[in-house]
Amino acid sequence: MAAQNEIRAKPVPRPGLWALTVVAVLVAAFLAWTFASSPNVHWDVIANYQFADAILQGLLVTLKLAVICEITGLLLGIGLAVMRLSSSRVLSWLSGIYVWVFRSVPLLVQLVLWFNLGLLFPHIGISGTSFVVETNDIITGFVAAILGLTLHEAAYNAEIVRGGIAAVDRGQVEAAQALGMNRALLLRRVVLPQALRVIVPPAGNQFISLLKNTSLVAFIAGGDLLSTAQNIYSGNFEIIALLIVASLWYLLLVSITSFLQGRLERHIGRSSAHSTKPRRDEPAPAAVAGA
Amino acid sequence: MSTLLPESVQEAGILTIATDAQLPPNNFVGPDGKTIIGVSVDMGNAVAKALGVKAKFVNTKFASLITGLQAGRYDIAISGVTDTAERQKQVDFVDFIESGQVFIVPKGNPGKVDSQDAMCGKTLSLVTGTISVDLAEAQSAKCVQAGQGQVTILKFPTVADALLQLTNGRADANIANLGKAAYQSKESGGKLEVAGKPFATSYDAVAVKKGDKEMIAALQYGFEQIIKDGTYQKILEKWDVQDSAVDKVVVNGGDSLEGSTS
């Protein structure tokens, strides 16, 4: 629009903004320096433990749990959201109950219950046959962690996906129905692609909280990143140093996640660029509606 | 009133003591669900009284226990903490309980864990950061060297979580000092029992901010008083841990005991 007649506009001078920027930078630098130079932050200890075997093993457990449970939790969550919005009252109701239960029961309680399932059911299988196994042999700490985290994540993801689907304009659905699309096709072609743009930011948030929720597996001898750091500091009392070691790893993991999330958002945004904000160098959307 | 305590404590008349109330019989929440009771609490109260002040207990988690001490939020910490050479780099210890370690096992000792060598190939369910973990790890290395199975160690944040795995059948034994083990097996209602002879003697200690000489001297004096007048012995008897008595409180004695660890 403005591209045709270039106007040489001088920005309005904003001394207040400049002053504020300088103050903010100074405060940030002061805080960073105070923290870094504090004699109570033992940087030598931090350097010693940052790449220690035990810490790296804990990091691997945290990564494994987060990635596996994100995938399983998201798949189950999508299923639950579709059930919730289905025309079958029973399915919708069951999905609602699931979300209610698994958002209500604290994750910690769930993990401990799964891990100690053997107290309630010492054996799993069909009685009277040879298909009977010890519960403790099947529900290892890792399996209990996967179960608890997946079921918990699924409940939250179901709500995120449901919100995304609900955000798609009703008119779109009606139009697709008028074209004779069946429900499955309508979901795949019309609803989900649009819902995805609404779903990705909160889903990314949810993944980051999952990354840190893995630390609750300490209660079932899980050995994740944070509990490994805790194991070490309860022995040597270098509490702050070990907490910083763990935090630096979480910072890195969350940075990578945020980067990937940004890429994903841009990717999804591109496919629907014409329907949202027009780019400056492109004609207005109305003009390409027929293209 | 004693003038040994740091001035700030004398002025306030209150000795603030941090404890992580999940370790019976040392420091744990009583049947009313809120009052902290146990050996540590009785000792803290008695020592404070001998020094002419009142003890105030604050229930906090382990991480805040030590950092709070270093930051001056609490005067001292009494929380069933074991004095070790490594920990002495961060805090000072006034040692007031001396005890060997034994095994807590499920009734009948199905895993037959009754000595350190019997740990080979077995699963131990322990509390994070306790010296029991160091002992089990050291034994595991010995087992492997002798061509026997390693010791599988499961680590939990609290005693309750660790002992649950004995009842659950996931672990063969837990290691605790004699007093704690006797108390736990008694409280379990016959589900757990004590096994083996005491080994690896260690001190439970009051943790003091590193270099707080005034506080250390005051605590030593306080303990001497309650040992002399018999209060100390009475407290140990009350909690059925009289075998853990020391003749004399020492400062940072964990180091000297390490040699006797076998």
Task: Explain what you see.
The complex is a heterodimer of chains A (291) and B (262). Chain A is mainly alpha-helical. Chain A has helices at 15-37, 43-50, 53-84, 89-104, 107-115, 117-120, 135-138, 141-166, 170-178, 183-213, 225-236, 239-271, 285-288; strands at residues 123-125, 132-134. In chain A, a hairpin with a 6-residue loop joins strand 1 and strand 2. Chain B is of the alpha/beta class and 262 residues long. Chain B has nine helices and twelve strands. In chain B, the strands form three sheets. In chain B, strands 1, 5, 6, 7, 10, 11 and 12 form a seven-stranded mixed β-sheet that branches. In chain B, helix 2 runs antiparallel to helix 8 (231-238). The longest helix of chain B is centred in the C-terminal third of the chain and has 16 residues, at 213-228. The termini of chain B are far apart. The model of chain B has no long low-confidence stretch (mean pLDDT 92).
Salient structural properties:
heterodimer; A: 291 residues; mainly alpha; two-stranded antiparallel sheet; 2 strands; 2% strand; flat; B: 262 residues; alpha/beta; seven-stranded mixed β-sheet; three-stranded antiparallel β-sheet; 9 helices; 12 strands; 29% strand; globular
* H/E topology pattern of chain B: HEEEEHEHEEEHEHEHEHHEH
Oligomeric state as shown: heterodimer
Look at the structure and give the mean pLDDT of chain B.
Answer: 92
Number of helix segments of chain A?
A: 13
Query: Which regions of chain A have little confidence, pLDDT < 50, spanning 5+ residues?
Result: 273-279, 282-291
The total count of strands of chain B amounts to 12
Q: Biggest interface, and residues per chain?
A: A-B, 24 and 28 residues
Task: Report, as a whole number of angstroms, the end-to-end distance of chain A.
Answer: 20 Å
Total of helices of chain B: 9
Q: Trace the largest sheet of chain A across and list its strands.
A: 1-2
Overall pLDDT confidence of chain A: 88
Supply Rg of chain B: 19 Å
Helix content of chain B: 25-40%
For the CA atoms, what is the radius of gyration of chain A? Answer: 26 Å
Tell me how many strands of chain A there are.
2
Could you say which overall geometry of chain A the principal axes of the C-alpha atoms support?
Answer: flat
Structural class of chain A: mainly alpha
**In whole angstroms, how far apart are the ends of chain B?**
43 Å
User: Which word captures the global form of chain B?
Assistant: globular
